[in-house]
Amino acid sequence: MSTSSQFLSRRSFGKLAAGVAAAAAGTVSLGACSPGSGTASANAPLRIMAINHVWSQAIKRRLKRFEDRVGRRVSMTLLTADQLSNSYNVKLNASGTDVDVMMVRALQDQLLFGRNGWLTDLTDRVKGEPAYDWPDFQDAPREVSVTDGKVLSVPVVTERPALYYRKDLVEDLGGPPRTLDDLMEMSLELADRGRNFFGYVGRGQRNGAVSQWSSFLYSFGGDFVVDGKSGIGSPEAVAAYAYYGGLLKRTGPPGATNMSLEQAMPIFAQGKAAFYVDADAIYSNFLDPKISTVGKTVGFAPFPAGPAGARPHNIPSWSLGINRFSLLRDEAWEFVRWASGPEMVAELQAAGIPGARKSAWSDAKTLAAFPAELAETMRINAERGIGYDRPQVLQVGRSRDIVGRPLVAGILGEAVAPVARDANAEFDDFLVRDNRHRES
After folding, report:
1. Where does the UniProt annotation place the signal sequence (predicted)?
2. Model confidence at 106, in pLDDT bands (50, 70, 90)?
């Protein structure tokens, strides 16, 4: 798949962030509904619904192997983010049996889908087969796969933040920044905004910036939720808001509060910024001479350490679940076991698709597809990583709007503390109303 297509696939599923939770937040719980009963026809295909993504495209090319293994035809549908969201809402609200395996985002979908009774409990399956080796999955993505003590999905694609930097500009500064203080100092020193060159570029849009800001929050010692209550008004969170806002305000491009991935990424790719923190999955965009001028000078470094150390996120960006109403749940598990097993994860990671298994990350052969510096960056960030990059709530989109408000204030140069105090109270109230711990 071309670099630009890879980026477009990633961009398309970004739209799902505000859509799934908001569209389905009012769904009546289906927890009382029984799983699909009856027997599927021997000729019925195993039906898989997935996002149009490099991982699903790679799996689709290998489906003949699986069909030969199980003796059943497989139908795999690749959809845009909006199509996937709409299909799940329609089919699962109706207890539909016409989808078996579901590609989902554990951090965006799983709490709600679990509350509604849409996902099969996989706990006994993943833990009951020694050869599958559930402990081999990285700790952070594995923990996020569990809701209320049940394994509801299996991670297949992971993502961390990378610090992208210009090697030619930091050579005389001792190399890339190792701490957030270093990042601020170097960004200020290298910025020349009068000539349209920026020290740092990053996401600043209220909702979209939250996921990347999370690593700054954790590295300052904060979190979204602490002991069941909002943590965004804590001194640590306020310091993280002020730091990130100040970084963009003092060294970033104008209009940063409107910048999502699509706006920030090209600024670095076109050689107009010294530093950029964003998903490691987009690295190839900076190596493609068709869209980048920094291919020969771009470097990759682990997330810098803050007062609480370096604490980046390490998330399962996409996972596999099984429709609870499927008539082919055993066959669906066979697919999940095959597609997320040690051999397939190693094979796909060797092709440049980062998986979630420790064994793949410790095997030099599987990392050979990545630039050496990036592979080491990804490995270090994975070891340090926290398994979520947004609040773990039912209505994810709404929560990000609340959490992102002080971010915007900081970028605009407004006093962060009072805005964070107001947002903290609003988020506290939201957590009560979101009510994710209520018994179904």
Report:
1. 1-23
2. very high
Tokens of 267: 């600024």
CA 338 vs CA 132, 335, 348: distances in Å: 9, 5, 12
For residue 84, what is the domain's CATH number? 3.40.190.10
The neighbour count for residue 26, using CB atoms within 10 Å, is: 7
Residue 256 CA to residue 333 CA, distance in Å, equals: 45
Instruction: Express as a percent the part of the chain with pLDDT over 90.
Output: 85
Q: What are the tokens at 343? A: 């051999």
Q: Report, as an integer, the average pLDDT of 265-278.
A: 97
- Whether residue 172 lies inside any domain: the answer is yes
Residue in the structure block whose two tokens are 């993502």: 159
The verdict on 45 and 174 lying in the same domain is: no
Q: Provide the β-strand partners of residue 101.
A: 48, 322
118 within domain boundaries? yes
* Minimum mean pLDDT range among 30-39, 105-114, 255-264, 392-401: 30-39
Lowest-pLDDT choice from 30-34, 170-174, 244-248: 30-34
**148 lies in which domain range?**
3-159+315-384
Asked whether residue 247 falls in the same domain as residue 166, the answer is yes
Chain centre to alpha carbon of residue 65: 29
How much is the pLDDT for 123? 98
Q: Are residues 361 and 410 in the same domain?
A: no
Asked if 193 and 238 sit in the same domain, the reply is: yes
* Gap between the Cα atoms of 38 and 117, Å rounded: 19
Count each helix (H run) and each strand (E run) in the chain, helices first: 20, 13
Q: Establish if 255 belongs to a structural domain.
A: yes
Tokens of 59: 């799996």
Q: Specify the range with the lowest mean pLDDT, choosing from 6-15, 126-135, 292-301.
A: 6-15
User: What is residue 137's predicted lDDT score, i.e. its pLDDT?
Assistant: 97
How confident is the model at residue 15, as a pLDDT? 36
Number of domains in the chain: 2
Q: pTM of the predicted model, to two decimals? A: 0.84
Residue 361 sits in the same domain as residue 414: no
Residues 72, 108 within the same domain: yes
Question: CA 240 to CA 224: how far, in whole Å?
Answer: 12
Return the structure tokens found at 125: 């399956």
Are 397 and 380 found together in one domain? no
DSSP per-residue string spanning 105-135: -HHHHHHHHHHTT-B---HHHHHH-TTT-GG
